[in-house]
Amino acid sequence: MAQWKCFPSRKKHPRRQWAYPWLRPSHHRPEQSLATVVSENTQGNGYAEFKAALIYAQLLSTLEENDPMTIFAPDNEAFKNWYEQLGVAGYYEVDETLLRETLLHHMAIGRHFTQGFIHGELLSTPLQDATIEIDTTALSVNGALLDPNYSNQLGTNGVLHGVQAVFDRP
Fold it and tell me: How crowded is residue 93: how many other Cβ atoms within 10 Å of its Cβ?
């Protein structure tokens, strides 16, 4: 019969000092899907327009799928600027195809946490001709700055990050 050996405990390493505290990994297990995270956690954080646009484009249910994904959610100010560029008052006036493709362009395949971002990395999206480029120097994604107060929001099927601009279609 085999015996178990007890190993002396290892020294604890000092906690890492993170240059950007919001890049620090979270160690809790999520209980909500990304759809629920978007539905419940975006209202008071300045991301209500993203949720409304997803519902209008009938894409909120996509965030219930089991395949892991990363969402880069533009904040309300980003949507306001985008609407001004398009000359419309809101998502309900945006061409249906443009709205749907723009929202899909904010979804990356796989889980991508900020602490794992690699400079120049291209993330695949559900759109065949679109990728998302990571810039760790500027702390941006496709040229849109990451929101330091709204990143690494965990769901059972992925992670959500806030961004401060709507991505241009390639």
Answer: 11
Burial annotation 10-41 (CB, 10 A radius, 16+ → b, else e) = eeeeeeeeeeeebbeeeeeebebbbbbbbbeb
CA 130 to chain centre: 16
Which of 106, 123, 114 lies closest to 150 in space, CA to CA? Answer: 114
Find residue 74's DSSP bridge partners: 163
Burial class (CB in 10 A: 0-12, 13-18, 19+), 155: buried
Q: Which uninterrupted H or E stretch holds 74?
A: strand 69-74
- Higher pLDDT: 16 or 170? It is 170
Residue 160 clears pLDDT 70, i.e. is over it: yes
**Mean pLDDT over residues 6-17, rounded?**
43
Structural domains of the chain, with CATH: 32-163 (2.30.180.10)
> How big is the CA angle at 142 (ends 92 and 36), to the nearest 5 degrees?
55
DSSP 146: B
Per-residue pLDDT, 45: 82
Tell whether the model's pLDDT for residue 32 goes beyond 80: yes
